[in-house]
Design goal:
Its EC number is 5.4.2.2. The protein has 588 residues and is an alpha/beta fold. The chain folds into four domains: 6-220, Alpha-D-Glucose-1,6-Bisphosphate, Chain A, domain 3 (3-Layer(aba) Sandwich); 244-337, Alpha-D-Glucose-1,6-Bisphosphate, subunit A, domain 3 (Alpha-D-Glucose-1,6-Bisphosphate, Chain A, domain 3); 339-432, 3-Layer(aba) Sandwich (Alpha-D-Glucose-1,6-Bisphosphate, Chain A, domain 3), CATH 3.40.120; 469-587, TATA-Binding Protein, CATH 3.30.310. It is globular.
Amino acid sequence: MNNTLTELRGVQSMTWKDNYQVWKDYKDLNPQIAAELAEMAGDDAALENAFTKPMAFGTAGMRGLIGPGIGQMNLYTVGSATEGLARFMDTLSDDDKQRGVAISFDSRYQSREFAHHAAQVLGAHNIPSYVFDDIRPTPELSFAVRHLHTYAGIMITASHNPKQYNGFKIYGPDGGQMPPVAADQITGYVRSIDNLFTVATVAEPKLRQKGLLHIVGEDLDEDYLAGVKAVSVNPKLIDEVGKDMKLIYTPLHGTGRVIGYRALKDAGYANFTMVKEQAIADPEFPTVEHPNPEFPEAFNMAIKLGKEQGADLLVATDPDADRLGAAVRMPNGDYTLMTGNQIASVLLNYILKAKQDANQLPADGLVVKSIVSTELATKIAEHYGVQMNNVLTGFKYIAEQIKLAEENHEHTFLFGFEESFGYLINPFVRDKDAIQSTILLAEVAADYKQQGLTLYDGIQQLYKEYGYFKEKTTAKEFGGVDGAEKMAAIMKSLRDNRPTAFAGVQVETVDDYQTQTATHADGTTEKLTLPESNVLKYWLADGTWIAVRPSGTEPKIKFYIGTNADTEAAATQKLTDFEQALNDWVQD
């Protein structure tokens, strides 16, 4: 049988059974993978899912189930992804190539193995690598790229996905995810690999002897933590209030346990407690089904501990510590979870107000958010005379805005966020950073505490000043080998059957980022300036917006609703009405 996995070049000439047979017949298959493959024998559904299509590799890298096959995360698919990066770097100047690649990994199954395998592939191309000695957060990997001046970075993580997943993310020279042009070239190289089993590697001892593999850790931790400490807007406030404020922190079995604890201590928060059961770096994530701070269940243990201690604030970071969730104490002693939009709004308001009070608010200030994030932030930015730029979903677009602002000397970046619990305060990192966000959110809580208020009171104050903004995100999953086709068919149907109203409210404009066209109710159109993307956004007559897009990392379509009203009850009712209308529309 031909040992070429032609599917990797997009040629649909081999069936899943053909691809499976290639792996089954390969005599030098990694023993662990061979054992896993043997366990899959007879399970046609699992085999079809693993061998029908290669893993999708795009601008965000790749993410999927761990296991054998061209469609799952394993040493061979990680090797092919790294080989694509290496072939791209072979086209660079010698100076850029020798800058090398920084590599970090999270607490998931095989993350360490994948990270070191990537270094062995890079070494076969004489590309140096700088591998962390143990698990570290995604934002610290972004920092490492910038601090070490490497040309690229690799983060082995599946972020907040369940335990069965892992992933591979590539970062560019600025510490942000690899720019689109370079990412497309890397994708082309990955897809051109004929045979996963022929990707060359060099043993680590030889790489160490040749100076092509460097182990890093505490030397970078200290510098990263110094940057995190500088995020504080008013250190005096921490000395006066924050040091005695009761906090609960949970890293949800992930990388935050390495850095989060030290960051809080360094900032001066002496009276905080980690959820000890969740401070264990465990790839099983045994205390949570979903290690995701967006999910209420992730806070169950923190809430229990918080009630025992009367804590003011509970914070949780996801396994790679780029997302931050929070719960705040209510007047009755219970805790309520804040949404990502609420966290972003109180952070932004605090930053802008504090800088204004200290006469440090720049006239050219810039805030950046995704197009599916709250418009409350826009109102806050307008109040302080700060420009708000909207970008597509994906923190790489926020990183691009920071880079442009620096290169053009037109704006001073102040804050960036996505509604999905991702925020960035100081741009010494170029990805969302839950460690930075933890430190500043604790300071915001201290500020309200000094006023005799809580973070819950704080968000209510913002609503009273700017209006009650409510947002909700829902998703429909489409697993299996035909999931992508189903999602494509749904998006096509949504475009072919454009709604004119939701819940009786007229659609005034439809932004289609795939065609980069805004179509108004009167039939007129205008060009959208953001990059092409498979996203639809509907602007309604009452100020509500609805957006639809396939997820870039999971087999699901996401639906976003953002609305506002003069009262909380009215905003809540509108959200309910539009969610029902959206469900009816999708089902139809």
